[in-house]
Specification:
Layout (H helix, E strand, L loop, with lengths): L3 H7 L14 H5 L2 H10 L5 E5 L4 H12 L3 E6 L2 H21 L68 E5 L5 H15 L4 E4 L14 H29 L3 E6 L12 H21 L4 E8 L5 H8 L1 H8 L13 H8 L10 E4 L3 H4 L2
Parallel strand pairs: 1-2, 1-4, 2-3, 4-5, 5-6, 6-7
Helix pairs in contact: 4-5, 6-7, 7-8, 9-10
Length: 363
């Protein structure tokens, strides 16, 4: 794996913080263990598709996979924002190449939207509303629908960092529409020729108490957070099966797919559905060498919700959960890379919680 700091932390010896033997990147690189970690987690040359990649978790995970060696197709509806995220990732890759060091993935997360914890009344924070959620407008990783099947941000008359970097591709995709999904994958096929990894991340939240929830609020969340996971997952899996070389699908669920919170009947039901869908996909696709797992994040601070989380009310709410703070985006990296790489080659049909233990104490 290219991220020497991650390899160092993983092989740090006695201390969970990397203390003890082999606590430096150079020290790990000189060991057999260091070579093992780099090989096991290496994603060089693999093609990853990340939905909801124009903000939040999706932007961060796209950057993490690119830093690990992947060619990455970033998919979302908001073309301009998607292009900006891809530009920042391209700069991170270029910096790492020029200096021989790994840049901080947080630099590539270009988000002013809630990645994983939009706030609702009475401090009932939305867990894992996914990269595209803007809870102020209850919007998904979308804006106005963009031209599906085109490369976002091109044709400006100038060469962007993305256009000059063959490892990155931006495609507009409305995950709610089959034709839009297929058009986006056609662009990915033409550019990269294959799909090895899918991060099914696009999502939306529309918090409302059960008795007050409208048909549109229910259906809108279920269509995006559950039906789209099936739709995009099927498109990617069909390609993986046709390639006859296996693959990895990572569906982004939520701790609210397991735990219960008021005002989240639509969101919680959809995310619970994602967990069961993940198991069904894993069961049927295993014979083709395609692994399917889910990540279930807890609360993660981003630009959009940081003000709330740092307010007195927000601090009080988070303090009541384990471990007493919101997650940091880089704390998702290990779980993501495990499920995407050969290091997780014997993990299939699993749900990996990354919530700091919040579910242990109840929501």
């Amino acid at each position: 794996m290219r991220d020497k700091s991650t390899a160092s932390d993983a092989a740090g010896g006695k201390g969970g913080d990397g203390s003890g033997g082999g606590d430096s990147a150079a020290g790990v690189d000189a060991t057999v263990g260091g070579a093992f970690f780099r090989r096991a987690f290496c994603l060089d040359g693999r093609v990853a598709v990340v939905t909801g990649a124009s903000s939040g978790l999706g932007a961060h995970m796209a950057a993490t996979l690119a830093r690990a060696g992947c060619k990455v197709a970033l998919a979302a509806r908001r073309a301009a924002r998607l292009e900006a995220v891809a530009e920042s990732i391209a700069e991170v890759i270029a910096d790492a190449t020029d200096t021989g060091t790994v840049a901080n993935t947080n630099a590539s997360a270009n988000t002013n939207t809630v990645a994983n914890a939009g706030t609702v009344a009475n401090a009932n924070t939305v867990a894992n509303t996914n990269a595209g959620t803007n809870t102020g407008a209850n919007a998904t990783d979308t804006g106005a629908a963009a031209d599906t099947g085109t490369v976002a941000g091109t044709g400006t008359g100038t060469t962007t960092a993305v256009e000059s970097n063959s490892r990155l591709l931006t495609v507009t995709m409305d995950v709610r529409e089959r034709d839009a999904v297929e058009a986006a994958f056609a662009r990915i096929d033409a550019h990269f020729g294959r799909v090895d990894i899918l991060v099914n991340n696009a999502g939306v939240a529309a918090p409302r108490r059960f008795l007050d929830m409208s048909e549109a609020e229910w259906q809108g969340v279920v269509d995006t957070d559950l039906s789209a996971v099936w739709r995009v997952g099927q498109a990617a899996a069909r390609r993986m099966v046709a390639q006859d070389s296996g693959g990895a699908i990572i569906n982004i669920a939520s701790m609210l797919g397991v735990g219960v919170q008021r005002g989240q009947a639509n969101y919680g039901a959809a995310k619970a559905g994602v967990i069961q869908l993940t198991r069904s996909m894993a069961l049927e696709l295993a014979r083709h060498g395609v692994r399917v797992n889910a990540l279930a994040p807890g609360y993660f601070a981003t630009e959009m919700n940081r003000e709330f989380l740092e307010s007195a009310r927000g601090r009080e709410y988070v303090a009541g959960l384990l471990p007493g703070r919101a997650g940091r985006l880089h704390e998702l990296d290990g779980a993501l890379l495990l499920l995407a790489s050969d290091a997780g080659g014997y993990i299939n049909g699993s749900v990996l919680s990354v919530d700091g233990g919040a579910l242990l104490g109840g929501l």
